[in-house]
Amino acid sequence: MSEAIADDLTPAQGDLYSGPTMSRTFAKPASIADVARVAGVSVPTVSRVLTGAAKVSAERRERVQRAIVELGYRPNSAARALVSGKQTIIAVMTSDTTIYGYSATIEGIEVAAREAGFFVVISVIEFSDAAEVDRAVSLALGQPLAGIIVLKFDPAGVQILKSLPRDIPLVAVSGELDDSLSQAVLDEEAAGAEMTRYLLGLGHATVHHVSIPPSRKEDGRTIGWRKALAEAGAETPPIISASWAADSGVRIGLGLAARPDITAVFCGNDEVAMGVIAGVVDSGRRVPDDVSVVGFDDHPLSRIWRPGITTAMQDFGSLGKRAFSLLALQIEGEESPARSSERPPLVIRASAAPPPRR
Amino acid sequence: MSEAIADDLTPAQGDLYSGPTMSRTFAKPASIADVARVAGVSVPTVSRVLTGAAKVSAERRERVQRAIVELGYRPNSAARALVSGKQTIIAVMTSDTTIYGYSATIEGIEVAAREAGFFVVISVIEFSDAAEVDRAVSLALGQPLAGIIVLKFDPAGVQILKSLPRDIPLVAVSGELDDSLSQAVLDEEAAGAEMTRYLLGLGHATVHHVSIPPSRKEDGRTIGWRKALAEAGAETPPIISASWAADSGVRIGLGLAARPDITAVFCGNDEVAMGVIAGVVDSGRRVPDDVSVVGFDDHPLSRIWRPGITTAMQDFGSLGKRAFSLLALQIEGEESPARSSERPPLVIRASAAPPPRR
DNA sequence: AGTTCGCATGATAACGTTTTCAAAAGTCAG
DNA sequence: CTGACTTTTGAAAACGTTATCATGCGAACT
Predict the structure, then answer these.
(1) Is the pLDDT assigned to residue A126 strictly greater than 50?
(2) Domain parsing of chain A, residue ranges
(3) Interchain proximity A143–B98, CB inside 8 Å
């Protein structure tokens, strides 16, 4: 008997040497049929061993497992996906992966997805015109996707969301709740308001705001800032817009430093705050003695920066995990859009202080 | 005739309402057979319109395209992959996505892959024990992968590489060439040596080195540093090891500042350099007046840091693109391992200066 | 001992495409 | 008007897996 098996050890390799020009051909991978033949059992039995869906006698299971390692067999997941109809890939669509908040969120999604047996594909979709986004999106939709998570932190994310069909599980991640979608959010509005109140509480007459590119007219941080100022009866100065580029904060800081009436600046994120601080310091004023500058996100370098940056701690890892949970709910057939919100706590460091006495 | 078609407009939906408990069921997606039925043509004809593989009369093509938009048909890529045997997913395996160099490389890979019609899945595999890595790797291998790119910047990457079978297209990305694999590298050794020579040229007696977790015994930056010191006949001080954690640099900086004989420090990357600078400044010494501190990578925040950090510019985006090109070569059946190397240029900013006069 | 039950097993269908291959329908030249 | 092409079309097979169903076998019960 062992001889009969030995005869069959090699899988079908008819096309292994398909021509003299192919110098190195990856051998055609073993299929479940090859395993069955080598193990001397039927195809479904191998499948049962693989999936554990039904009982198989110890002796046969043993034979199958030996055949599997011998042939280096790996299941073809395309065939699996086709027959089971179940997809295991989750697409994350975003305009950028190098910004800290973005990559940290993606890593959170990835970890949660992997634990649940899903894989994450990243689609970086830059914002150009709507047609371009459409094209990129439909390309991604060509994949066998179980669901999609969109990082809606900026205008590109909004555009992506617009291009997406609604017949597939979908979750948006952002800083503010809006439409009827399933959303994982960090409550930026509350945190922005708290940060503003903190600065006012230090004695500043008002707080200036440097905003990052918002996903809609105004992001949650800005709204919270505006509300807190209104509550306190403080004047609302015009918003200063920064870009994602590192230098943009520096230029703004330079401009801010020229105005001695400005004593407190709330920046849309920590990177911008670092730039603003650099600009202010470059023009000879001190932070926080002359001007207080605070950020948002708690970037890993914020605690290292000198002065350490007072900020709101966004737990992007948890945000990503919550986004995945919401998506998993939909994949399982849950009907109604769900929301998950968390409120970022303040992290007090050294970059904010009472205003200078005049 | 139009009526006959109208009767058939809806795709098969037998299981659309599969039970009273399912309140919202995603309709079973239209298949190519549904499209064929609605358009009144055969299944292969629809396929031909889709792939453009053969000519179809204008009138039928028109009918098919109308049916496609009407049904919102999207091809099932699992079925496609199954029959064609071609895979379109590339896995990037890495231990981290939030470190700047890592995420920038991944973005470069992603952009190049998308242009070539591939998708990128990210596998974050933390380094614990070898068995754990094995498990994570074989899980990822369950996907229908066209190829794999491993970010071999650290010990985790090395372990991942060890767990990977060699019967699948594979490229490693790192800072130094070693074994027979296809590799995309940045020539860290040359850049490390150049940086060290630069510091010696400013008049420093020797240069201390703070290293980040290396992928093997010593990374390219360290080797270049060692060689340049030897060339110049300078003493080689013991290496100081930092971790990826932001604080670790600060602690090291504190220690370094206590030793007045140390005037030049070459850090393994910019984040660590920022930490070291913070630590040095915290203990009352000045950078670069008392101590010169330089980094590596050209992190986007390095130009904003005060003082601006002198560093070596690593083009991670191009690194990622080169890695993908190498992989594409293998996927097309190229036999021999290929290499691609690039040399990072120095970026002179303000954090290094001649040593203080004694 | 005969019948029924439970369980392991294998044959076969199904999933949604693309790829042959053969047939049908034109098209052109003689 | 016929024969030989070329082009367009459809039928059927194939891809590798899981799901369904029937079968055979031994054990347990009457």
Answers:
(1) yes
(2) 2-75, 87-186+316-342, 188-315
(3) no
Which CATH number is B2-75's, of 3.10.310.10, 1.10.10.10, 1.10.260.40, 2.60.120.1680? Answer: 1.10.260.40
Residue B352 token pair: 């290094």
The secondary structure element, H or E, covering residue A132 is helix A130-141
Pick the CATH number of B87-186+316-342 from 3.30.450.20, 3.40.50.2300, 3.60.70.12, 3.30.160.40: 3.40.50.2300
pLDDT in tens, B91-142: 999 998 888 889 899 999 998 998 888 888 888 888 778 888 887 887 787 7
- Given a contact cutoff of 8 angstroms between Cβ atoms, the answer to whether B172 and B152 are in contact is yes
**How far off is chain B from A293, nearest CA to CA, in Å?**
15
Residue B223: other Cβ atoms inside 10 A: 18
**Record: contact A301-B120, CB cut-off 8 A:** no
Q: Provide CATH code, domain B188-314.
A: 3.40.50.2300
Mutate to test the interface with B, among A16, A26, A77 (most CBs of B within 10 A): A77
Q: What 3-state class would DSSP assign to B159?
A: helix
**How many angstroms separate the CA atoms of B89 and A264, rounded?**
49
Q: Do domains B87-186+316-342 and B188-314 have the same CATH topology?
A: yes
pLDDT digits (tens, 9 = 90+) for A94-123: 998 888 889 899 999 998 998 888 888 888
A56 CA – C3 C1', rounded, Å: 27
Contacting residues of B for A32, CB less than 8 Å apart: none
CATH superfamily of A188-315: Response regulator (3.40.50.2300)
Taking a C-beta distance cutoff of 8 angstroms, is the pair A337, A153 a contact? no
Q: Cβ of A304 and B82 within 8 Å?
A: no
Closest Cβ opposite residue B26 in set A76, A98, A167: A167
Which residues in A lie closer than 8 A to residue B298 (C-beta atoms)?
Answer: none
A143–B89: do the CB atoms touch at under 8 Å?
yes
Q: Are A104 and A133 in contact (CB under 8 A)?
A: no
Q: How far is A81 from chain B (nearest CA, A)?
A: 6
Strand partners, B347: B311
Q: How far is the CA of B193 from the C1' of C27 (A)?
A: 74
- Give the mean pLDDT of A259-288: 96
- Give percent helix, percent strand, percent coil of chain B, each to the nearest 5: 45, 15, 40
Instruction: From the CA of A25 to the C1' of C11: give the distance in Å.
Output: 35
Mean pLDDT, residues A133-160: 85
> Is some CB atom of chain A closer than 8 A to the CB atom of B305?
yes
Q: Is B167 on the interface with A (CB under 8 A)?
A: yes
Q: What residues are paired with A173 via a beta bridge?
A: A151, A184
Coil vs helix vs strand at B112: helix
CB B357 within 8 A of CB B205: no
Q: Do residues A27 and B166 touch, judged by C-beta distance below 8 A?
A: no
Assign residue B116 a region (left: φ > 0; alpha: ψ between -120 and 50; beta: otherwise).
Answer: alpha
